[in-house]
Hints:
The chain is 49% helix and 15% strand. By secondary structure, it is α+β, with helices and mostly antiparallel strands. The protein folds into two domains: 21-120, no CATH class; 127-278, Serine Threonine Protein Phosphatase 5, Tetratricopeptide repeat. Strands 1, 2, 3, 4, 5, 6 and 7 form a seven-stranded antiparallel sheet that branches. Helix 4 runs antiparallel to helix 5 and helix 5 (163-173) packs antiparallel against helix 6. The N and C termini lie far apart (68 Å).
Amino acid sequence: xxxxxxxxxxVISLHVQAQDKLVFNSKFVQSEDKWIAxxxxxxxxxxxxxxxxxxxxxxxxDYAGSFTVQPxxxxxxxNKSTESSVKHRLQPSNLPVAIIPESHFGELEILKYPEWLxxxxxxxxxxxxLYKWGYMYNSWGECAKALExxxxxxxxxxxxxxxxxxxxxSYNCLKQFTKAIDVLKIAAQRDTKDAYVHKELLYSQIxxxxxxxxxxxxxxxxxxxxxxTYNAENAINILGGYFRxxxxxxxxxxxxxxxxxxxxxxxxxxxxxxxELTKN
Length: 280
């Protein structure tokens, strides 16, 4: 029995030690309100700091200093920023960083949340703030995270300007096309001249195998929406729907109708798709 408990304690100890180590498997956009460390330099020093979102500037890194990892696993603070704030604006990147385990906060002389962070939390639960955060996460391709903010905003004020189309974008990104259609139909009824709203709706319909509905949306846009920015993209998306369904006749008819094969951006894709279709 003593051997059994000793083994259990050993396993627990190893698990705790593993949790205390730096694991470089996070991206900037996954590290909001977290203390992070970069990989060590040639001298074994890790630069560290706090990542947060500034409502105006976006993703921001607040530099705190550097540390080394000792042979026994302790974090030894090497340099500590003496300035009140050294901030760097971040661009979304695949550069891996490590979330610093809470067990090392004392060694680095940091709190879980810096005192100054509260100034960036004003209006945290308002639709405007939730929408802005959702919009930013969508732009970084973190659609599931964006949806957390956008659905909260929707529960407070579903009529907040731009919210429905941003929700639709998240749902499309996550392949939840029925949900996207539901919310984007309302958005299209409210903003009948908004080309972007209709583009997202058409995309949802195509990927939900509702190509006839997508064509109807396309026709509506061509007839009533002055902004022609997305017309060619809409046409090629519908053509892609016919391609995936293997409908050669409809494919050819659509090319003839829209002349998408002559478009300077998308025309190059038409003939290769047709050749692939004729193989079947």
